[in-house]
Design a protein that fits this description.
Residues 1-62 are annotated as: Disordered. Residues 40-50 have a biased composition (Acidic residues). Keywords: Hydrolase, Metal-binding, Zinc, Zinc-finger. The protein has 209 residues and is α+β, with helices and mostly antiparallel strands. It has helices at residues 11-14, 21-35, 37-53, 115-123, 151-157, 163-167, 198-208, and strands spanning 97-100, 106-108, 127-130, 136-138, 143-145, 176-177, 183-184. Strands 2-1-3-4-5 form a five-stranded antiparallel beta sheet, covered by helices on one side. A two-stranded antiparallel sheet has the order 6-7.
């Protein structure tokens, strides 16, 4: 009630002067438009649309020209050890596993919602190798690295020797270097203990001697 009016009846209604709601709305719209408030709202809506349409990261098929070796200097070979079971350190899955060449940890997938993708964004580690295909990728850009400087890493991921190479192992003394730069003689270095395989390790050492 306004000024003693009751039952929801205003003084304007008692006097027979009913306000036109549409006219009042148009008048208010005109005032806002003149003040420039509506234009600001439109611009804010446009900004929201643009922000929602922006991709999380740019996916590339190849590195930009002149940046073929980008991030390769962040690879730490001393932390790489591919002898253990290839399981994602987050999901514990052995499907589509990638190894981070910066910290040595395993992560699943490389898509925009994968564990490796999140690790690249959060940890700033950008170089990964697929444990099956041995292809190396840079994330989150998602392009393949084809540098020959990574061939030593690809070989250690899944080492394979031909029959003739195996036959020459105990006939031709040959020194090798591991990923940490330490010299060793093939056949005289013990294997990592992978889930109670020490008995197998003893047999290999006995045969090598």
């Amino acid at each position: 009630p306004v000024n003693g009016a009751s039952n929801g009846t205003s003084l304007l209604e008692e006097n027979g002067d009913t306000p036109d709601i549409l006219d009042a709305a148009e008048e208010r719209h005109g005032e806002l438009e003149e003040a420039g408030a509506l234009q600001d709202e439109v611009e804010d809506d446009d900004d929201d649309d643009e922000r929602s349409a922006m991709p999380a990261a740019t996916r590339q098929k190849a590195p930009a020209e002149g940046y073929d070796d980008l991030y390769l200097d962040t690879i730490d070979r001393s932390l790489l050890d591919f002898d253990f079971e290839k399981l994602c350190s987050v999901t514990l899955s052995n499907i589509n596993v990638y190894a981070c060449l910066v910290c040595g940890k395993y992560y699943q997938g490389r898509g925009p919602k994968s564990q490796a993708y999140f690790h690249a964004l959060e940890g700033g580690h950008h170089v990964y190798v697929n444990m099956e295909t041995k292809k190396v990728y840079v994330l989150p850009e998602d392009y393949e690295v084809k540098s020959k400087s990574l061939e030593d890493i690809k070989f250690v991921v899944d080492p394979k020797l031909s029959k003739s190479e195996v036959a020459q192992l105990d006939k031709v003394p040959k020194k090798e270097w591991d990923l940490a730069g330490r010299e060793y003689i093939p056949g005289f270095v013990g294997m990592n203990n992978i889930k109670a395989n020490d008995y197998f390790n003893v047999v290999i050492h006995a045969l090598s001697h």
